[in-house]
Amino acid sequence: MWKYRLLKTLRVLISLLVLLSFAAGFSSLHRFAANAAKGEFLPALLRMVTQLSLISAVFFLVIVAVTLLVGRLYCSFCCPLGVLQDIASRLGKLLTFNKLKYRTMPDFRRTRIIVLVILICCAVGGWMFPLGPLDPYSLFGRNAAGPGQALFTEVNNELYGRIEAIQPLEPRPEFPPALSVLSGVILLGILLAAVWRGRVFCNTLCPVGALLGVLSKRAFAPLRLDPEKCMKCGMCVKVCKAGCIDIRGRELDAARCVGCMNCVSVCRFGALGFHRRPKAAEPEKTAEAADVSAETPLPDKGRRTFLAAAGVSGVAAFFVGRLAGNAGKLQTPANGVPPVMPPGAGNRDDFNRRCTGCGICIANCTGHTLKPAFLEYGLAGMGQPRLSFEIGKCEYECRKCSDLCPTGALRKLSAEEKRRCRIGEVHYYRERCVVVTDGTSCGACAEHCPTGALQMVPYKGHLTIPHVIRDLCIGCGCCQYICPVMDEAGKAVMIHGAAEQTSAADPRTVLEQAQPVQAEMEEFPF
Amino acid sequence: MERRDFLKGAAVLAVAAGVAGKLGGAEKRGGASETEGKSPDLVALRGESPADMFDTGITLFGGIQAFVKPGQSVVIKPNIGWDRPPESGANANPGLVGRMVKRCFEAGAKEVFVFDHTCDNWVNSYSTSGIKAAVEAEGGTMVSGAVEEDYREIDVPKALRMKRPKVHRLILDCDVFFNVPVLKHHGGAKLTCAMKNFMGLVWDRRFMHANDLQQCIADASLIRRPDLNVVDAFRVMSTGGPRGNANSVVRNMKSLLLSRDIVAVDTAGARLIGFPLETIAHIRNAEKLGLGTTKLNTLDIRRIML
To answer: In A123, A310, B60, B235, which residue has its Cα 20 to 30 A from A479's Cα atom?
Structure first.
């Protein structure tokens, strides 16, 4: 028992460490911590497939291997949403003086599987949106990058000036309220359910939990309850967050067990532990049936109906996904300016299909430029990052988004690739420009342009006016951000996003070559 | 002219100017420091190190003690606008800023703050420019200029366009203010020098661009008169400014200008970089506001080659 207590303590420590690194990563306090997201299940799977990333493949295979060996320990050790739920239920117990108790929960196996099938088919069909707020990591991320970071900034800036070590944080652009409310409400629901009965979400709606549950069921040595040793005292049921122990039937459902090790650390009879599954199932069941339903075998007919339902909903979800994925995609937005994807997104179709909208790029954006799209990309890209130049611009030397993207929706770019990555193109509306309307100097756009795509050329008298060298523009939005024009129709320089990101020309070859440096002056010209 | 002749000439001029100053011929301008009457109007230096040039130049003004009294708080406002390395000439020289911090502490300054309202991300600009490292090595404090909470609205009745700017609290609260711009080309304002550096004290730079930039730059200079302008003209970006692009020409002018007169020092800067004065409207606008003079020939100028 002490060994299991140690293991449980270890689990608590590791899970808190994971949560801490996510907190640091999403508050952009610690850049390396944000890389922890790459070790999460869905991101690792997506990045392995989309970017053929070796490191993501290793993460993914380790998670699968551990699950096949001892069950879905991932859900207790590594899932930030899981840890958050554990903290919520712990707090709930403290506040109600332990009146809230865990108890055996009904098995929503079918719901789980059907939700999983629908989400996968929808995503494969081209609509990532439903998966986003239900994937545990991405849901955590959406809330961390949105309200989480807003709160953090608020508190930090309140302390700034009072505590010397604290540096001020710039505010982020405003998020679409509907999306923030949606992910906030889902999170709140999950946490309330956790206070009530523990890991309810993990065993009903969570796609990762469902998938790992299927593997857990076939694990080599999962947590098991030994019916011979069990005295039916019920201690384990009281501490089981997953509600997966049926004390009457003296059984522990490995598909739902999240491997928190609460039960093994309280069992006084040594009835619980990681044990190999018995070689043969009970003689009256076939091996297959035992696999699918160890507890109450479904009658064949029910099983067939279930499979048919899963199949039908999968096919339906696929087509719904295709429809929704294309809906509004080609529509030009209201202001006629196509949305701008973060650097490394490549092709817009690919990007919309790969991004779960976890928001880690948004949380870490140096220029405070990224924010979740609402309908700018159509239905397909709701919640996915887009650049807005309201309070910032894409910093020329920064590559944080493409470095950190855990799903591979953004390809990692080299410094040179980033400086040339053409995420959009500037459009100059001369009739709105201050130089033309007011006849005064400005040049803010050219001043901020890092590539030299905007140049000030002679206009009237000593005035100069912007001129665009199209080949050089990368669409970073420095010009749009700083443009002082407050015209209703828009600024005098606007970035139109590229649907296919390409590489801009090399400024060294396009711009005028440097004149030979003049001989050193001997005297001052005054 | 041979370098030696030039040096001789400079020395003679300097002595002559000094005598003239003693005789009361030098034009006197209103100011806080009691040593002002004795010190030159403008000091121009050429040498191999901006930091050493500062040390030499400041002695002509009576040393750093003439500006910084024990227990005072000092603000050094360099140009740190861009996430660009020192060799680009986009930001003020880090060695110069570091040395100034050091001298301020030697004079007994209680605290030395350095900040800019940067154009690129402030954290990256502070570190890439090398200024953060140089300042912190000497015990100075880098302060953010990135959040609006740090700016207070003030009245500038003499201003023509920007009458109520929001100004960084450090400038309003400090005892001593050193303005440390880098000299460079500027696509919009034509020239970045001492006055243009004041845009980094103001919260809303878009307002300035939208309301006659050249007048707003002059108006900004009314916010507070710097105790000394120290213009870094060591590496001078003479095309593609202010940020600089891949083919910007950076000339090694190896110079440093010091003056209390912000108009005079900008005039000298324009001459140095070779831009005609009449194309740079903010200098004329500032002269009209009574901030200084563009007539360099009326001034006591010391030219020193190190």
So the answer is: B235
